[in-house]
């Protein structure tokens, strides 16, 4: 393992900060999402309704506790912290000309606090937090004008923090929106809710095209602000395995992977894969895509690939395969994999899949990879101020071991690893507090009750040792 390996943790503004209407912050798309559960989808409401509970409004009040929390991250020895800048703290509505100084100051203070402990901020520009106003007024990323609004936001923060932040990520899990049947993804990626009269896939490609252009432009302009910037993309990396050696299963798995890798293909190579252009032609799609757009794509390719890794999928056309009917992923070819276990939330546990996918990405792109999320969502039991989270330690241990093998034996260039939800956040997909990820327990429940007091879990000390020994104890 390299000496400067970036061990750390990851969070996102809307899942931890709270203070949703403090310091001039505007309403974001996450602010209109209610709480759900594994079996009950989060609702996306038309504005904020007094009768509903919105868990992201208060989060875990990282906004008010960040000094205490950063101190705990430092105690664990974090080399970096991945978080996002809430767009709505900087441009509350998204279409203002001047930024909100109070929001900018908050991140100045947060980054200073991190740097004081030698913790490098790794910053995501868009992590499901676009201004709600941009949805209501412009239709979200359906609208080309979003490119300019995003550019203004990105350049404002890159200028402001050019001496504090080196690692940037543009759009979190940009490929989530390829899952068309669950509204949570088009909403959080693009601020879009499909109507019955449109071809979802065509709308999706249009929105993503605007995001690709915005991302490439930011990479290109970011380098002018500071040539040392390292700017990456984020792929939700989920291997697709064929259940059987039936050639139809193999082909299906390949197609699923291709659809996922389409996103990194464009970010990394700077142009659209020919087969997708062909598909659009065949389907009669008319995408708004100019020569100038295509030029920007080729000029703003990413420096590294950020991946989030939690699980693998298995697909099959075989009638005997056990269909998962996954509410979250909504794909009727997804089937149960008899060789892997799953979490209480139905996410498969597949450490080898991490090594497999690191190799696949390395073979395809030969770019540095940053694992910007990996973690174990679990309903921890809190007993007399203590959390014995041996299941989490086991999960992380197994995944880190596979990452190490990929680095040491397979020669994959992994530059860092940040554990998702290093302090218990609000779950993105369910809005629950109960689905915990942290090394630090936060006293808050699904209904928003609790003291918000922080407690170290057993995994806290364990991860401290991993970092201290640069992973050699794994
Ligand atoms: C990723 C997101 O999809 O997975 C995070 O980038 C999210 O925002 C994480 O929290 C885990 O998902 P969940 O639904 O368990 O919180």
Structure description:
With about 475 residues, the protein is of the alpha/beta class. The chain has a single domain (about 5-470), classed as TIM Barrel, CATH 3.20.20.80. About 40% of the residues lie in helices and about 15% in strands. The protein contains 14 helices and 16 strands. The chain has helices spanning about 15, 60-75, 85-90, 100-115, 130-140, 145-160, 185-190, 200-225, 245-270, 275-285, 290-300, 350-365, 390-410, 460-470, and strands at about 5-10, 80-85, 120-125, 165-170, 230-235, 240, 305-310, 315, 340, 350, 370-375, 380-385, 385, 415-420, 440, 455. It has an eight-stranded parallel beta barrel with strand order 1-2-3-4-5-7-11-14, surrounded by five helices. The radius of gyration is 21 Å and the shape is globular. The site of 6-O-phosphono-beta-D-glucopyranose has 14 residues, from loops.
């Amino acid at each position: 393992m390299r000496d400067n390996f970036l061990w750390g943790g990851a969070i996102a503004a809307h899942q931890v900060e709270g203070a949703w209407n403090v310091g001039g912050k505007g309403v974001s798309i996450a602010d209109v999402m209610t709480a759900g559960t594994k079996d009950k989808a989060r609702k996306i409401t038309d504005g904020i309704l007094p009768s509903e509970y919105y868990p992201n409004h208060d989060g875990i009040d990282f906004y008010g506790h960040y000094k205490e929390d950063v101190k705990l991250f430092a105690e664990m020895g974090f080399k970096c912290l991945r978080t996002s800048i809430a767009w709505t703290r900087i441009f509350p509505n998204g279409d203002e000309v001047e930024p909100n100084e109070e929001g900018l100051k908050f991140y100045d203070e947060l980054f200073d606090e991190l740097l004081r402990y030698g913790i490098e901020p790794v910053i995501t520009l868009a992590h499901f937090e676009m201004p709600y106003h941009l949805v209501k007024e412009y239709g979200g990323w359906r609208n080309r004008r979003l490119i300019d609004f995003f550019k203004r936001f990105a350049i404002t923060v890159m200028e402001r923090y050019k001496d504090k932040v080196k690692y940037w990520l543009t759009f979190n899990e940009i490929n989530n929106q390829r899952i068309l049947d669950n509204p949570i993804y088009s909403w959080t990626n693009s601020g879009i809710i499909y109507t019955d009269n449109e071809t979802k896939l065509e709308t999706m490609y249009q929105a993503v095209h605007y995001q690709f252009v915005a991302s490439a432009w930011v990479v290109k302009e970011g380098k002018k602000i500071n040539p040392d910037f390292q700017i990456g993309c984020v792929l939700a990396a989920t291997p697709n395995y064929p259940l059987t050696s039936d050639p139809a299963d193999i082909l299906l798995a390949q197609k699923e992977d291709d659809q996922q890798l389409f996103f990194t293909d464009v970010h990394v190579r700077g142009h659209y894969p020919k087969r997708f252009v062909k598909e659009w032609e065949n389907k009669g799609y008319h995408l708004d895509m100019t020569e100038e757009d295509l030029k920007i794509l080729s000029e703003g390719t990413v420096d590294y690939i950020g991946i989030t890794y939690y699980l693998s999928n298995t697909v099959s056309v075989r009638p005997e395969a056990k269909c998962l009917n996954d509410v979250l992923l909504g794909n009727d070819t997804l089937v149960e994999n008899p060789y892997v276990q799953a979490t209480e939330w139905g996410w498969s546990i597949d450490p080898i899949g991490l090594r497999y996918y690191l190799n696949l990405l390395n073979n395809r792109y030969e770019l540095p990879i940053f694992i910007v999320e990996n973690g174990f969502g679990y309903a921890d039991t809190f007993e007399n101020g203590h959390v014995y989270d041996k299941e989490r330690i086991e999960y992380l241990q197994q995944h880190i071991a596979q990452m190490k093998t990929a680095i040491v034996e397979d020669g994959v260039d992994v530059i860092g690893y940040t554990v998702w939800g290093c302090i218990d956040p609000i779950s993105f997909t369910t809005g629950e507090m109960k689905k915990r990820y942290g090394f630090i327990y936060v006293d808050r429940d699904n209904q928003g009750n609790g003291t918000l007091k922080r407690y170290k879990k057993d995994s806290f000390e364990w991860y401290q040792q991993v970092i201290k020994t640069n992973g050699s104890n794994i």
